Amino acid sequence: MMIIAVACVLTYIIPAGEYKREEKGGQTLVVPGSYHEITQHGVSFLDLFRAVPEGLLTGGEIVFYIFLVGGAFGIVHRTGAFENGINQAIKSLGSSKILMIPLTMTVFSILGFSIGLAEETIIFVPIGVIIARTLGYDAMTGAAMVILGAASGFIGGMLNPFTVGVAQTVAELPMFSGWGLRTIIYLFILAAAISTVLIYARKVKRNPKKSIVYQLEKEEGNSHKEIKYERFTKRQALALGMIVLAIIFNVYGIFRYEWTFNQMSANFVLAGLLAGLISGLGLNGTFDAFIDGMKDILFGAMIVGFAKGIVVILEKGKIIDSIIHGMTTLLNDVPSSIVIIVMFVFQFFLNFFIPSGSGQALTTMPLMVPISDLLHINRQLTVLAFQYGDSISNVLFPTSAILMGALAVAKISYVQWLKFAWKLIALWAIICAIAMSIALLAGY
């Protein structure tokens, strides 16, 4: 709301202007050199509040996709399939202790790049802490296995509809296109995360006093409860299978039939309802779980509408093209490789104020796409800059409710987390910057 208010004020300060646009190859392109100033269109006080429902309406397809997917996952979560499935996978490792860290992180990374695992991360952090302590490590190792595992996949984002899917939709690119390069970068990101956690875990095992959370381990490390595994039933396996099939079906539909969020939403609703009925929740139990799942995702869905409201104000005040013109004028003589890094850094720090990936995509991509067009930068690179800037900062900034919630349940302070994670975050940023530079040179 503060950013919407600032946007309202800017409609009186920034001169109104417009570019001409043309349709070409299925994309709406800005015509270079066509910018011209027009009569000022300062918005009214009431427009500040009208922007919210208008934003919800214009972003309705994405808003309801988030709601419906949240509902479907709420059903599967109610069945216990997620927790018991991962518990079963962990239990199956048996005595292969050292493999626990890379395998656990890989599992969570797959959930990160396929379903955009976010709020659910918090649920698994206590399990990760117990596993780490059982293996002779500390709470930081356990929390990092879950948080950084999911984050690695989220950064990869190959099939993540909430970030890459939304950004590519706004950029008028085929959904999930360019997944090959993202997969290669994801492997480097995951390897860096696993190596960081393994090195730290071994150091702690050799000398427990080297633990960043040594005081916490002195108080709780020897008094932790054992993991109580519940049986992973065939019904739960089938419920989980429904969601997996929905993801596969959606990916096939996107590449084969150019499906949008509407078709994807329908498939997740169907998968969720089947999962509930197969698991024995019954009709009432299934729909109760569906509503609870939508409640859990309320913040993510609503923030999309509010973020879209920012763009509504900029467009209504006719200043969005003026901002684009000003930024392209400043960056016109700057090498494209530097522009991409500037976009990456901009998205990185903006995540402090807009911690929702979908919301950030809807706020910034309408600005970034025309800028990249005018500076002759491929739109896929602009999506990469958004994707990496948004996702890396999710494990850094304290405005990330998911990060702070995960740290809270592990009883780890934010300062302790920074001490542990800052080198990896810096390494991730370097990997992504190099990858974007190579992609630019290769004409990605």
From TrEMBL:
It comes from the Bacteria. The chain crosses the membrane at residues 56-77, 144-163, 183-201, 237-255, 267-285, 297-314, 334-354, 395-414, 420-442. Keywords: Cell membrane, Membrane, Transmembrane, Transmembrane helix. The keyword Transmembrane applies. It is a multi-pass membrane protein. It is found in: Cell membrane. One of its GO terms (cellular component) is plasma membrane. Signal peptide: none annotated. This is Short-chain fatty acids transporter. It comes from Staphylococcus carnosus (strain TM300). The lineage of its organism: Bacteria, Bacillati, Bacillota, Bacilli, Bacillales.
